[in-house]
Amino acid sequence: MTTHSRAFAPLDLLQLLSIAVIWGVNNILAKIAVDALPPMLTVALRFLFVLVVLVWFIRQPPAGNLPTFLTMLAFIGPVHFGIQYTGLKLASDIAPMVVAMQLWAPASVVFAALLLKERVSPLRWAGVAVAFLGTASMNFDPAVFAQGGALALVSLASISYGFGTVLVRRLGGMDVWSTQAWIALAIVPSMASASLLFESGQIEAVVHAHWIVWAALIFGGLISSIVANAFLFGLVQKYEVSRTTPYLLMTPVISFTLAALVLHNQITPQILFGAALTIGGVLLVAIAERRFKAVA
Predict the structure, then answer these.
(1) Do residues 137 and 273 make contact, with C-beta atoms less than 8 angstroms apart?
(2) What are the structural domain ranges in the chain?
(3) How far apart are CA 5 and CA 294, in angstroms?
(4) pTM of the model
């Protein structure tokens, strides 16, 4: 039995489920934080906690591939989170935004085909199309259409992240701790500078921020960014991505539930339909990847 085909060890399965729960909870906490603070300042503060913990892991960038490394940092770091949190700030309901966050997986398929020249099966292309169609279809809901700008920004941020993950694969051999430390180092000064240039009322917002806001930032930095990513890094080294992805699709389900219970968001049938299409598309991509590896 190969490493890829073996069953999940109980501890590994627990870690995988923990990632879904952590990310599902963090989506709600991110909305709480960004509602209280300017978005770029929120990003800078969240990753300041990451940088304080991981600064000791910063290593020399990969030799001979500095442009790709810097581009990866930009798109996974400031570009992704800056656009995403701006979209979350504009959003009145978090549920459609959580769906849009899942687009990074099908987007990475497109970029892998373009940049890495990977062969993409028809089933994977179908998954990409269904996922993007699902997100777009949510705009037929009047409540979502009214916040179409926020949905477009979060979708763009997710696509940016998908692009960055392909660059990580191109670089290869990246250490999880060093990579996260570099991403935090790219985010903190750039987002702090952007906040000073484009935002206002930062001091007042920080002074009056409820303790829940600070708890949300700490959770996002230490638990969501560091712990969950460390779990995921170890799991994808032991198991196929196509096997872990379906479990991670629990994330939007958890966020939907919490959005209704905690934020009192209304989850309409049109949003549920779009979410089902998007998640189904991502699942198709995962299934297609597994079938492709089986015959390769």
Answers:
(1) yes
(2) 10-295
(3) 10
(4) 0.87
